[in-house]
Design a protein that fits this description.
Layout (H helix, E strand, L loop, with lengths): L16 H17 L3 E7 L6 E7 L14 E2 L10 E10 L5 E14 L2 E9 L8 H47 L3 H16 L3 E7 L6 E7 L4 H4 L2 E2 L4 H9 L3 E3 L13 H7 L3 E9 L2 E10 L7 H16 L3 H45 L3 H29 L10 H9 L8 E7 L9 H21 L4 E8 L3 E8 L6 H8 L6 H11 L4 E6 L5 E8 L4
Parallel strand pairs: 13-14
Antiparallel strand pairs: 1-2, 1-6, 3-4, 4-5, 5-6, 7-8, 7-12, 8-9, 10-11, 11-12, 14-15, 15-17, 16-17
Organism: Streptomyces cellulosae
Keywords: Kinase, Transferase, Two-component regulatory system
Pfam family, one: HATPase_c
């Protein structure tokens, strides 16, 4: 494997060797010349110039250029010449960001792999270093830049290859220990996210038509709308990767002109800004697309793209065509069962919940004993039917959503998947000192049940316009809070809800789900003005 072609681009992967090596050098020379800003610009033979390192002390430090960020240099920039420049503007080619220097000096450097400039200057005020200092600076800068880059290439190349080997070893071990394609693909996502040090990783596989791909396995994806996307050939980043049959990168997804019919809104709501995608080829057929991404701007580079292509090629070796097809069939069937189960839950279960609620209200307001008994029978029947239906829905989907430990983001996504009431503004929050901790299946199931039940109750009965769901994870517990800004409950009604023999079906089912795992459920006035439903599950008991 040769990294010479893109040896300046390691910083966007796991290696920060070049940026770390050049940073102190830039700081020294900037300080020596009395400047407030220092940049190292690399100009490759093809493609835009790149920023390798920077050191800034003025107000532009609040929004610095990023390592490997592509640049636009102004006309007349002194490529290869030592020159003092007035009113220099260096623009990012990635976003609306510009470095403005009232005066600066560009010190050229060259080595065996390319050319560049060390730019130092001030945003305001004159910058007039002595000629002798400039000559000395040029000799010192060129020598030190060459030496730093040489060391950084060696260190960065070793680190990148070690990271890749570790990722491939992880996949090989998974392939050897399990013949199941789903397990292998899950290991591919974990290895990809670790290799590129990314926030999210996800995988799409083809549906029966072979043209539409749907997301299957995901890591740290939070919104149901994104998780349920269906991508056509040529659509978005994954569609482009399938069309080109190669890895592709998008530094700023929402503004990428190459992406056709891209799901920009869903991607923006998920928060993904920079991403890459690569096809998984089995017997020359695309059996999946692997993605990695970040919720912050990250200048993925040519090296990252090449690295992802090699990673995807090796990952494909662990998938046999028959196993991949069988896995795809099972996923499609599971997704259809889940869709049916969620539709039934949103329609029939909500209807039974409303029947039970109205029966309870009539029972407490009715003066006729016989009618009150009939209302009690109706409420009890609604509760029994709702419990049986939920059990059958769980059997229908095979508890697929809870077969493995979940992340907090996945639990919040499951809670948010219940149908939204008209005019309701929902927000979610994952917090606490251990937000990335895995949640065991029983706890995940209980938290999802409580969250969905509390949201449903709030949106049907409280008249709320806003509902906030927070999941806090620390070393001792998982704590879920659902807060609405609705009408709330008067003290008498709240006492009934909190009573051990509460007649309210939804609250009884939530309490049962929580206390079964040694937790506690409370209902109190919310910070938004309505109610707060709070469930706490101890981690030590799970």
């Amino acid at each position: 494997m040769s990294w010479t072609r893109s040896s300046y681009a390691w910083d966007a992967g796991r290696s920060t060797a070049i940026h770390d090596a050049l940073g102190p050098l830039v700081a020294d020379i900037r300080s020596l010349l009395g400047a407030g800003t220092g940049l190292v610009v690399y100009e490759p033979s093809s493609g835009p110039p790149l920023l390798l390192a920077s050191d800034v002390t003025d107000d532009s430090a609040d929004d610095p250029l990023l390592p490997n960020e592509p640049l636009r240099l102004p006309p007349g920039f002194p490529h290869g010449r030592l020159e003092v420049i007035s009113d220099l503007e260096i623009h990012s080619a990635l976003r609306d960001r510009v470095v403005k220097l009232g005066s600066a000096v560009a010190v050229p450097w060259r080595d065996a792999f390319g050319t560049g400039s060390l730019v130092v200057g001030n945003t305001a005020g004159a910058f007039t270093p002595e000629a002798a200092d400039l000559r000395s600076c040029r000799r010192d800068a060129v020598r030190r830049v060459r030496a730093a880059l040489r060391r950084a290439r060696q260190a960065g190349g070793t680190l990148v290859e070690n990271d890749l080997n570790q990722a491939l070893r992880h996949i090989a071990e998974s392939t050897a220990s399990s013949p199941d394609a789903g397990t292998v693909l899950a290991s591919v996502l974990v290895a990809a996210r670790n290799l590129f040090d990314c926030e999210v990783a996800y995988l799409s596989i083809p549906e029966y038509d072979g043209v539409t791909f749907a997301f299957d396995q995901v890591l740290n994806i939070q919104t149901p709308a994104f998780r349920h996307l269906r991508i056509k050939h040529g659509q978005g980043l994954g569609g482009l990767a399938r069309e080109l049959r190669s890895s592709v990168r998008s530094l700023d997804y929402a503004r990428d002109p190459r992406l056709r019919a891209a799901p920009v809104d869903e991607t923006a709501r998920e928060g993904i800004v920079s991403a890459m995608a690569a096809p998984l080829l089995v017997d020359d057929q695309i059996k999946g697309v692997v993605y990695v991404g970040n919720r912050r701007l990250k200048p993925f580079t040519e090296t990252d793209e090449t690295l992802l292509a090699e990673f995807a090629g090796y990952s494909s070796l662990g998938l046999k065509r028959r196993e991949a097809d069988e896995y795809r069939d099972s996923v499609i069937q599971r997704k259809e069962r889940e869709r049916l189960a969620h539709d039934l839950h949103d329609s029939v279960v909500r209807g039974l919940l409303r029947i039970g609620f109205e029966a309870e209200a009539a029972q407490h307001n009715c003066q006729d004993d016989a009618l009150r008994r009939r209302m009690a029978v109706i409420g009890s029947a609604a509760e029994e039917c709702m419990g049986m239906l939920r059990h059958h829905l769980s059997v229908l989907i095979g508890d697929a959503e809870y077969g493995q430990p979940s992340t907090g983001a996945e639990v919040l996504g499951q809670i948010a998947s219940v149908r939204r009431g008209p005019g309701i503004d929902r927000t979610t929050e994952l917090c606490g000192p251990c937000p990335d901790a895995l949640i065991p299946p029983p706890a995940a199931k209980a938290l999802v049940h409580v969250g969905q039940e509390a949201l449903t109750n709030a949106e049907i009965h409280s008249g709320c316009r806003r509902a906030h769901t927070a999941l806090e994870i620390d070393a001792e517990s998982f704590e879920l809070r659902v807060v609405d800004d609705g009408g709330g409950l008067d003290p008498t009604a709240l006492d009934q809800v909190l009573a051990p023999t509460s007649p309210h079906l939804g609250f009884r089912s939530m309490r049962t789900a929580v206390t079964r795992l040694g937790g506690r459920l409370t209902v109190e006035s919310g910070s938004l003005g309505g109610l707060q439903v709070r469930a706490v599950l101890p981690r030590g008991r799970l």
